[in-house]
Amino acid sequence: MHAALRPLYQRLSQSCLIDRQPIKRRLRQLEERLKQGKPSDKALADIESMLTQSATRLAARLAALPKPTFDTALPVNQRREVLSEAIAKHQVVIVCGETGSGKTTQLPKICLDLGRGAAGLIGHTQPRRIAARSVAARLAQELNSPLGEVVGYKVRFNDKISERNHVKLMTDGILLAESQGDRYLNAYDTIIIDEAHERSLNIDFLLGFLKQLLPKRPDLKVIVTSATIDAERFSRHFNGAPVIEVSGRTYPVEVRYRPLQTKDEDDREEDMEEAIVDAVDELMREGQGDILVFLPGEREIRDTAEHLRKHQLRGVEILPLFARLSIEDQQRVFRPSGQRRVVLATNVAETSLTVPGIRYVIDTGLARVNRYSARAKVTQLQIEKISQASARQRAGRCGRVAEGICVRLYDEADFNARPSPTRKSCAPRWPTSFYG
Questions:
Q1: What pLDDT was estimated at residue 434?
Q2: CATH for 75-249, options being 3.40.50.300, 3.30.1310.20, 3.40.50.1220, 3.40.50.720
Q3: How much is the pLDDT for 352?
Q4: Distance of alpha carbon 190 from its chain centroid, rounded?
């Protein structure tokens, strides 16, 4: 290295991450000019200017870092010191947290408290668009900042981001797409992969990509969260990364099995709608509180909503919740209306999202999911039975604020026969170490 350039290379650590690669490129070009004896004063001045501007931006971002406050009632914050120490010491940390632990909103705040989010963004991925938007709104509220300032989000067809962001919520698909243009993810100093146990194709690709990236980005921190026993597998994939377990904050949930009495498969959808109406009637008699119904997809939600309206439930508001719903209609679910509510949702409400006021859950035991067909080489939407882990997640939705009741529209033998973790959606060839 040319002696004149050594101080400039040393100043790189005081610049924003996203500026370092372009400056390094200019430094290498300058080194070649010096070796060849070419004039270099202007190039040297340009690089010094770039370093100064980047250092000024970094200082401003450090000064603007919010000072988070932490609700000690949340289980994750009772382990905040352990989590902070693990994140500071290790490049990868696995957080295994049950429903209601608060990990989704508190982990970015713990990272901010450690000074992350200044040199680069804290990237926080969610499996679904609706979750990314709602988590961003909640996190911005907890940090006393308008959405789009400290916290921004980016999903397909919609974003609210700016240069002032320290935390960026997005779907895992958005981060994967960004890796095509920024293969070292230089815009980020921290990546949080939330709900990794869902094991979508995008999540699996991200986990493989990040493992390959980490040796090239020793400054990058990665936090992977899982709500299931898959946590140990994630740890093995990342070469023995530490696993921090966080308990959930849930009240007792009574589970009732009300299997469909279907004799003809052609009548199954109609029987399901009738069973939901019967379950709603049963739960309405139990006392106050809103009801969350899990259905496979948008069509089933619309059909069930129509069926419930014909049933003429007095003083009850029926609300749909699915990914393609307009933002305004989605927000209605999170605003109290003064009426009792029946929320008809896909599995978007299974994790990350907390629908307020839910005391009762009706679980059809089904979900419409993307599966990759190796034969057709495309992903296909299929209706499948959910796993035991997903069923427990759904039941946990009604134990967040008080004791709850979950009605499963299938029998206990069916539940026990289902696989414990979420079924893999990607052929077990890549990343191979993850499936070992």
A1: 35
A2: 3.40.50.300
A3: 67
A4: 14
